[in-house]
Inverse folding.
């Protein structure tokens, strides 16, 4: 329903429906000439086929009236042939957004807004996460789904945030040189039963009755909004790019679905819509941004945008608000009084996979 | 026996999944309940998790809030007019009775005003079964170190001034100064609303997340009670169990 391509396909199937009764009609037209003796039956056939034809043509007309409605056809046409969002003029951008608003409003049965607020001067969005506080409750991941109109349900569930459960390391002096863990060729110190240090492997599917579990640490991972994003470097159509205030965004309409960015991302932050996203009408969040949480279509890549539809309007990202332990912090890296700047100034901070030269704007910290 | 218990558990968990929670909780179950309602067209005040009842999404982050009082430290660098809190008084069950029936300032006989740990009268068993061994402070502090001895619907600060239940940070900060400083600067604790350092924020006060009477409850001792986790993400297509990511070594097995 969401993809313009699908509108097109639907159009074709309707045409086929209209074609069928036409075929039936020609058959019925031959019948009276062929057998005069079977007058009654042929008349019955004739009546039957005529009624079928009229019914079908009624259906067909109805379908034509809804499907080849000028505005809708124009919308589909315009969406197929619109340019790269970054290269559009302001006027074209506004037109593209208005088009989408009309389509989403019709599809989801409520007033949907597609925002296009540009980056603010003097803002560089940054994120900090207290890895010692995280209890692994996954509320951030679910809040993200609520906010960002991602696909849900059994067939295709997309979550932008992964929460990894990992064993709690121990770097005590006595244990550092005690042994090797089984199965892995890496010395992490400690022994097989009580390792020292943390080996980089995690569980996604942990499901205990209560969290946090004993001897576990949790590490939520989402898009790091790199300053030098590898995904942007590899995109062959330049549909994904870094915005001036920090977040790396995707113009879904320009995405060709090649998934190069997914293989380039060292953080496994990007998700692909293998089928039409399953987004229930009642659960759809009608406050959207063109580069953010507007409903996606089949065959495009999506990822965290720091909730661009909220943060451009001044509001915290949804995951920050959902975190019950206050482990998630968001703010302006250029403002020395912001929460993230204070954390970077005062706390022990690390970033994930800095050796990849990605310069993430997502800081893990401890206190 | 085992299978019966398992089936029972399944039924219980299934029913909890399908029953839409009428009452959700914001941060700590039993201490921050909030009712779902509509505050605009297609705009609920909160969206809650169908599994745990935890609030996942706020339609209006400042719904039901009041401006926060002044910080006890004069040069606190928060924006006074724009910091709001949600009043806690209506969440504290016994508060309307406290100070009205038993503790009216004229103390009932047999209840001396001193800080020596002793057993409490009825009505307090939900807070502490054995008041001589309060978990908070591991026996070093007692009720009247935090509660006002004469006005029981008030807390007390380090200069014996009464403190409202809506502003517990003034009282907690007297011992937990380092955490308090982080909280004041937005490093510790939770805030919702606007992210700009000059923006309006709803600050979550200490007792909204921590149980003040048993702060160290839970398996992993970090001051936060155990939470029920949200459901795990869907397994990749064609994979039936999560066995592939189970560790073959290490601390996870003990």
């Amino acid at each position: 329903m969401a993809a313009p391509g699908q509108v097109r396909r639907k159009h074709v199937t309707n045409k086929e429906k209209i074609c069928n009764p036409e075929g039936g009609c020609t058959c019925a037209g031959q019948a009276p000439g062929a057998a005069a003796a079977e007058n009654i039956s042929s008349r019955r056939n004739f009546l039957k086929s005529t009624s079928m034809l009229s019914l079908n043509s009624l259906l067909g007309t109805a379908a034509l009236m809804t499907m080849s409605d000028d505005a809708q056809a124009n919308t589909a046409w315009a969406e197929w042939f619109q340019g790269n969002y970054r290269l559009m003029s302001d006027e074209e951008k506004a037109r593209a957004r208005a088009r989408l608003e009309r389509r989403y409003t019709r599809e989801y049965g409520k007033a949907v807004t597609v925002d296009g607020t540009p980056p603010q001067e003097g803002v560089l969005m940054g994120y900090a996460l207290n890895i010692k506080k995280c209890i692994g409750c996954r509320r951030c991941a679910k809040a993200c789904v609520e906010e960002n109109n991602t696909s849900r349900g059994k067939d295709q569930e997309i979550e932008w945030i992964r929460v990894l459960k990992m064993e709690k390391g121990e770097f005590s002096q006595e244990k550092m040189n005690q042994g090797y863990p089984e199965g892995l060729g890496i010395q992490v110190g400690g022994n097989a039963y009580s390792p020292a240090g943390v080996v980089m492997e995690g569980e996604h599917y942990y499901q205990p009755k209560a969290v946090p579990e004993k001897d576990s640490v949790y590490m939520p991972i989402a898009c790091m909004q790199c300053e030098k994003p590898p995904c942007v470097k590899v995109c062959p159509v330049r549909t994904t790019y870094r915005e001036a205030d920090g977040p790396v965004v995707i113009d879904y309409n320009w995405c060709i679905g090649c998934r190069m960015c997914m293989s380039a991302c060292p953080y496994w932050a990007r998700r692909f819509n293998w089928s039409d996203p399953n987004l229930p009408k009642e659960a759809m969040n009608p406050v959207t941004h063109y580069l953010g949480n507007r409903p996606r279509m089949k065959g495009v890549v999506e990822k965290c945008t720091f909730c661009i539809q909220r943060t451009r309007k001044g509001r915290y990202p949804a995951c920050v608000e959902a975190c019950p332990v206050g482990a998630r912090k968001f703010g302006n890296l250029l403002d020395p009084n912001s929460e993230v700047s204070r954390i970077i100034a005062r706390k022990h901070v690390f970033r994930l996979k800095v050796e990849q030269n990605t310069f993430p704007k997502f800081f893990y910290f401890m206190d | 026996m085992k299978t019966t218990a398992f089936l029972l558990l399944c039924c219980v968990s299934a029913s909890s999944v399908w029953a839409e929670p009428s009452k959700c909780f914001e941060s700590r179950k039993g201490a921050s309940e909030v009712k779902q309602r509509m505050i605009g067209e297609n705009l609920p005040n909160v969206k809650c998790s169908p599994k745990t009842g935890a609030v996942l999404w706020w339609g209006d982050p400042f719904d039901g809030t009041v401006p926060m009082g002044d910080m006890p430290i004069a040069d606190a660098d928060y924006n006074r007019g724009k910091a709001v809190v949600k009043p806690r008084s209506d969440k504290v069950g016994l508060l309307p009775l406290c100070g009205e029936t038993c503790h009216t300032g004229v103390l009932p006989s047999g209840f001396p005003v001193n800080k020596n740990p002793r057993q409490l009268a009825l009505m307090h068993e939900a807070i502490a079964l054995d008041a001589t061994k309060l978990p908070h402070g591991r026996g070093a502090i007692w009720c009247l170190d935090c509660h006002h001895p004469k006005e029981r619907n008030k807390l007390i600060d380090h200069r014996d001034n009464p403190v409202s239940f809506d502003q517990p940070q003034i009282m907690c900060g007297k011992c937990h100064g380092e955490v308090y400083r982080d909280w004041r600067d937005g490093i510790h604790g939770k805030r919702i609303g606007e992210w700009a350092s000059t923006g309006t924020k709803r600050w979550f006060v200490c007792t909204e997340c921590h149980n003040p009477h048993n702060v160290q409850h839970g398996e992993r001792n970090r001051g936060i009670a155990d939470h029920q986790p949200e459901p795990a993400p869907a397994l990749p297509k064609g994979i039936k169990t999560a066995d592939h990511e189970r560790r073959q070594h290490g601390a996870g097995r003990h």
Summary: Residues 1-38, 58-67 of chain A have pLDDT under 50 and may be disordered. The two ends of chain A are 48 Å apart (CA to CA).
